[in-house]
Specification:
By secondary structure, this protein is an alpha+beta fold. The chain contains 24 helices and eleven strands. α14 packs antiparallel against α15. The protein starts with 6 loop residues before the first strand and ends in a 9-residue tail after the last strand.
């Protein structure tokens, strides 16, 4: 049986000039976990962002992200980060130059948009008073617009327009620009008056009987609006061109600065002197030698390396630190790892339970969801996810699980003869297979009860088989617990208690005894009583026995407390073994319910007449999605409560290596 991956603790002494290349190497390898929580990259990043440590590379990264968002350039993914290198002086210079261009474009766009907004508001307000027959002097009371009409030296027009800037709009009322209209907000009118006075503006005397807004003002505002819109459109075009021209280089810079920022985050929190940095961390033993050799080559020998066996590390010996646990599998079994770590990490050096989880999960799902057609849907989904034909975020890594449960469901469907609930399609195949072993019949395993004695007998045999599967799963859990405790030199726990040798022997003997009584008609004899009594006694008094092995007081709280504790342990043992066995009846119940549900959908489809296909599609889609989820949850529950609970008495620490990601 495979155990967790052997690990080594490595201590590195690195020169100041080599620290960033070394950290980049470690992050690229993704195979080194810092020993101290202080060096956890996620915590370091939070500290740096809060201002506790300077990180110019992260500042540039944030600015580049803002620029990417401003230019509407598509973001990058982690794959580009993995293939990139950290930003150096050349990248910093390129980033600064690019960001300067973007900032200048941002400012021009802001000015142009503000100008366009002001012209629009002025034109809209002026137009609203176009046909208002009131003296022009009354328009001075407008809520937004303040209008002034007069004359100026044409040569000073451009200079005046530049001087007022964003505070007002200067509209020429003639071709020679000698007559102008100045429009501003109420807040800016005094500032405008000051500027107009500087440039020799002479206000016209508007006749007292003149009413409305002059047509020249409206046409001037329209010209100004068209001109402002052209400026905005030109800037937008310039923005699109900038994005198109620099999209690839911007993404490359983002990836490089993402790496550089994380390197500086870690560097800021390392132990160091003015010349040397110290790093300690865990590396899988199988890659330790090659990584150390590569780092020695990278630093041209300017690195000091010390490698420790886990049980040479003081913090591991005294129990203040756990050796991180890494599980190493192929693609299929590896897809089930997250199910293990979601419950808890195995203890370092223990048996790796992932292969058993992969087998049991696949088997239980197939029994509960037996249909060749619906199973093929899961298999097809797994294949499409595996080859990235369909992408469902982080779920693509679970493609092997979909393929496994799809295959097991199809096998169970072949046994029960179901293909989307229809038993006729696979009938010829069932007859051909059963004909090889005797009289042909279909289906091979008939789950649907029809009231006959044979179908009821088959159903009970099916339930008995699922309880048998539960017995195997419980037994494997017990064996793993016993072996793990022997590996950890916890002999009392391995031998005594409900999950130790005494409890396991009691469980196995009782099951064998029941089978012997039911099948062979044997009766309980004295030997049965002796074996059951001894194993129960050792299980009941496991705690006092443990204390005796540890040379601790056996009856510290008195004899009565020991007896009560033993009775509770006895009841817990009997109830837990009974419930963990009966719990697997639900596997058969779900398998039977799935067959009945398929029959109901098929019957409704036949009753629907012309809508046969629609009812079949909708019904089977509901079964695949909803019942598939329910069955998966039930399988996970059985794994957690009936399998994991046997040997997960304490949890370890998952191996989480330092690697570069894109946040």
């Amino acid at each position: 049986m495979a155990r967790t991956t052997p690990m080594n603790l490595v201590e590195l002494m690195i020169m100041k000039n080599d620290i960033r290349p070394v950290l980049e190497f470690l992050g690229k390898k993704g195979n080194f976990q810092f020993q101290n929580h202080k060096n956890d990259s996620s915590k370091v990043s939070d500290a740096s962002r809060s201002g506790e440590a300077k990180n110019p590379e992260r500042d540039l990264f944030v600015r580049l992200q803002d620029a990417r968002s401003f230019l509407n350039v598509e973001d990058i993914d982690g794959a580009l980060v993995a293939s990139s290198t950290r930003a150096g002086e050349n990248e910093i210079a390129l980033a600064e130059k690019f960001l300067a261009n973007v900032e200048e474009l941002k400012k021009r766009q802001t000015v142009a948009n503000d100008e366009l907004k002001r012209v629009k508001e002025s034109k809209e307000e002026a137009e609203s008073f176009k046909n208002l027959k009131v003296p022009f002097s009354e328009l001075d009371h407008l809520s937004f617009l303040s209008l002034k009409i007069g004359k100026i030296d044409p040569e000073k027009f451009e200079e005046l327009d530049a001087a007022v800037g964003n505070r007002a709009i200067i509209v020429p009322l003639g071709d020679d620009k000698s007559k102008i209209m100045a429009a501003s907000s109420k807040k800016a009118r005094f500032s405008l008056d000051t500027e107009l006075k500087k440039f020799g503006f002479v206000s016209f005397e508007i006749p007292s009987d003149f009413k409305g807004v002059p047509d020249e003002v409206l046409s001037g505002l329209e010209s100004k609006l068209a001109e402002s819109q052209k400026v905005v459109e030109y800037i937008e075009e310039e923005k699109r061109n900038l994005a198109q021209t620099h999209a690839e280089s911007l993404r490359a810079l983002l990836a490089s600065f993402a790496i550089a920022a994380q390197i500086v985050d870690v560097q800021n929190n390392l132990e160091s002197t003015s010349l040397v940095y110290r790093i300690t961390g865990w590396i899988p033993s199988d890659s330790c030698h090659s990584m150390m050799k590569d780092m020695d080559k990278l630093t041209e020998g300017r690195i000091a390396i010390r490698v420790y066996n886990p049980f040479e590390v003081p913090s591991v010996i005294n129990g203040t630190e756990q050796v991180p646990v890494r599980l190493k599998h192929g693609k299929l079994v590896g897809a089930f790892e997250r199910m293990i770590f979601s419950y808890g990490s195995p203890v370092y050096g223990a048996i790796d339970p992932t292969p058993f989880v992969a087998i049991f999960f696949t088997l239980l799902f197939g029994i509960m969801f037996g249909d060749a057609g619906q199973g093929f849907i899961f298999l097809l989904m797994g294949l499409l996810m595996n080859f990235k034909v369909i992408k469902v975020g982080g779920w693509n890594k679970f493609a092997p699980i979909f393929m496994a449960i799809g295959t097991s469901s199809m096998i169970m469907g072949l046994l029960t003869g179901e293909f989307f609930g229809n038993e006729d399609i696979l009938r010829p195949l069932s007859l051909a297979i059963t004909g090889l072993f005797g009289e042909p019949h279909a289906p091979i395993l008939h789950l649907m009860p029809d009231g006959s004695a044979h179908s009821i007998k088959t159903m009970f045999m099916f339930f008995g088989a699922t309880v048998g599967v539960g017995f195997i799963i419980n037994s494997v859990g017990l064996v793993l617990n016993i072996i793990n405790n022997f590996i950890m030199h916890k002999i009392p726990k391995a031998l005594f208690g409900k999950n130790g040798v005494s409890g396991a022997v009691f469980f196995w003997y009782v099951v064998i005894m029941v089978i012997r009584i039911v099948v062979a008609g044997h009766s309980i004899d004295l030997t049965d009583g002796i074996i059951i009594g001894i194993t129960l006694f050792l299980t009941m008094f496991c705690e006092p026995i443990h204390r005796a092995f540890e040379h601790e007081p056996i009856m510290e709280n008195g004899l009565f407390a020991v007896v009560i504790e033993a009775v509770v342990e006895l009841l817990e043992t009997l109830i837990s073994y009974l419930s963990s066995s009966i719990s697997f009846i639900r596997v058969g119940a779900f398998g039977l319910a799935h067959a009945v549900l398929g029959f109901i959908i098929l019957t409704l489809s036949e009753m629907a007449g012309p809508a046969y296909l629609a009812v079949m599609l909708v019904g089977n889609a509901i079964v695949v999605v909803l019942e598939g989820m329910i069955v998966a949850i039930q399988v996970i529950r059985l794994q957690y409560y009936e399998f994991f609970s046997k040997f997960f008495n304490e949890t370890g620490r998952e191996f989480k290596p330092f690697s570069f990601d894109y946040k």
